[in-house]
Design a protein that fits this description.
Length: 209
């Protein structure tokens, strides 16, 4: 199984495509929908689902294009069910990025359980703090964590947006993410990949440096 990082849009939000043979999962298609559809077709990949780590505008801008083209289900935490269609909740009106909306989610997630889509199985980790419905998807078979805007290389997600909480975010990271295997690759919503051990050792937000 392979994953590809595709930074999209003005904020260079990381969309990830996790593939096996010709099947794939698309995480956080944030922008540039036509180009993303073209890339998937050029690589002869068949998307099975869109998995959203959360519903901020920079993570959902290309959801409609993928949904229209491939007619695949959208997964999202139930706490952000209304955000996809509401620019005041998803933040696009706040940041003057134009009105960004997406189709409603087909499957609302509310439990920390296993999620299997085609050949892919994930452990769902509810990691609020950056937003109330933030989910991190742990892909044990590939030793990777699709972390959204919860944890970055040398940093953590911002908590000054509606529904954010610095204390809750740190609880999520320490309680859920730092207990994963140290060699786990962390695939964040922005910036380069990192690992649990790297952030455990050197992230100043987690170590008080």
């Amino acid at each position: 199984m392979d994953w590809t990082q595709l930074p999209l849009g003005p904020l260079q939000t990381n969309c990830y495509v996790l593939s096996h043979d010709s099947k794939c999962i698309v995480f956080d298609p944030g922008s540039e929908g036509e180009q993303l559809v073209e890339w998937l077709n050029e690589n002869k990949l068949e998307p099975l689902a869109i998995l959203l780590t959360h519903a901020h505008f920079d993570h959902i801008g290309a959801v409609g294009s993928l949904k229209q083209t491939f007619n695949i289900p959208i997964y999202l935490h139930e706490k952000e069910e209304q955000w996809l269609g509401d620019p005041t909740l998803n933040g696009s009106s706040r940041f003057e990025m134009g009105t960004i909306t997406a189709p409603e989610a087909d499957i609302l997630l509310d439990e920390e359980t296993e999620l299997t889509v085609g050949p892919f199985t994930f452990q769902l980790l509810h990691t609020p703090g950056h937003s109330p419905g933030s989910i991190s998807y742990y892909f044990a078979e590939g030793g990777a964590l699709f972390a959204g805007d919860t944890l970055f290389m040398g940093s953590i997600g911002r908590t000054d947006l509606p529904g954010g909480s610095h204390e809750q975010l740190l609880d999520s990271i320490h309680g859920k993410l730092m207990s994963l295997p140290e060699e786990t690759i962390v695939l964040p919503g922005h910036g380069p990949a990192t690992s649990i051990i790297s952030e455990m050792d050197s992230n100043p937000f987690l170590n008080g440096f």
